[in-house]
Recover the amino acids of this structure.
């Protein structure tokens, strides 16, 4: 599926020579991520952009089958590509579970059980408080240190040219520099229903849509990969956007 940007208003632009590849809400679908890496590599080999940046908009873990391998792929990618990794609400929730094991059963409702199983750790229902602490301790021991470091070092936003990249969105009427992290990671209706300009063109995920939406003020590239098998890749160069 190809989706191009709207034509009616002044188009946001990247600096000359910069090409951005953006992906959001991988949710443990490592096999789909590998496919998108192959697409990016082929495009770079063909077009040879002056400066390529790969921007990942968060929610790397939970729900899908292989969060562990997804993090391995992203970390490996960071060693040989110019990458930016943003924080999603799932990463924020997971790191809070590491600090407060009593939240582990709530995390399971968000797809955390699949993440835990990808590290070879299983859980029975109805855990006591002590069992919750033991389980989180077992998970932390099973995780490579570089995975924990990766999740703790994620940034909330990234700006390039006229584009603002974030996991969930922004609160309308608030300057981008003054946004609360809780909104950047969790906001939905107030942002999605707004027709206002936000100071920059916002590229986000978080709320699944049937196909990528490239609107006048924002682009939503979360196409529910774990449920649909469709992981969207957004190409941006100059004032052109293309989602596949």
């Amino acid at each position: 599926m190809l989706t191009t940007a709207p034509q009616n208003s002044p188009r946001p632009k990247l600096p000359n020579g910069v090409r951005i590849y953006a992906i959001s809400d991988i949710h443990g679908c490592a096999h789909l991520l590998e496919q998108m890496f192959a697409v990016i590599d082929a495009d770079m080999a063909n077009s040879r952009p002056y400066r390529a940046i790969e921007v990942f908009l968060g929610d790397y873990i939970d729900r899908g089958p292989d969060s562990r391998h997804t993090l391995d792929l992203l970390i490996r990618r960071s060693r040989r590509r110019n990458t930016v990794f943003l924080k999603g609400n799932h990463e924020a929730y997971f790191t809070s579970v590491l600090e407060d094991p009593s939240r582990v059963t709530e995390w399971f409702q968000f797809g955390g059980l699949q993440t835990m199983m990808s590290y070879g750790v299983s859980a029975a229902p109805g855990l006591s408080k002590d069992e919750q602490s033991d389980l989180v301790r077992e998970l932390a021991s099973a995780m490579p240190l570089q995975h924990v470091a990766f999740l703790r070092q994620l940034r909330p936003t990234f700006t390039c040219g006229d584009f603002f990249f974030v996991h969930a969105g922004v609160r309308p009427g608030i300057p981008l520099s003054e946004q609360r992290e809780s909104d950047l990671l969790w906001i939905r209706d107030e942002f999605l229903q707004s027709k206002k300009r936000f100071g920059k063109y916002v590229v986000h995920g978080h709320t699944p849509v049937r196909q990528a939406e490239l609107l006048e003020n924002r682009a939503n590239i979360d196409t529910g990969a774990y449920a649909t098998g469709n992981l969207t890749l957004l190409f941006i160069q100059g004032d052109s956007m293309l989602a596949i």
User: Anything to note?
Assistant: The CA atoms of residues 1 and 244 lie 5 Å apart. The mean pLDDT is 95. The longest strand covers residues 18-23.
